[in-house]
Perilipin 2 (Mandrillus leucophaeus), 126 residues
Amino acid sequence: MASVAVDPQPSVVTRVINLPLVSSTYDLMSSAYLSTKDQYPYLKSVCEMAEKGVKTITSVAMTSALPIIQKLEPQIAVANIYACKGLDRIEERLPILNQPSTQANTCFPNLDLDVCLENNSRFLTS
């Protein structure tokens, strides 16, 4: 009897990272960060030290947390399912998430984020 491979549900983190608005904004910020580091040598050395520290701390944290994460894997899988369903709802209500940041920015050149969140909070709570 042949076994059928079942694709696991993608992680909500992967889905968020792959949203055009998120990935294009990351690319823009990463480019600005690298450009700034290249322009200012002293800032570059400070940033590189900070990056090294973050990598070290992350490595230690992951090593320490791995046994706990493995024990909680079933609960994490359930939480991921619910988070993906919530992301589906958000994507339906905010189609701007599927546009790159350059396009989204031209749609709202004078956007006041506080007013936007206040006026659209019902989308995130319903």
The chain has six helices and no strands. The mean pLDDT is 85.
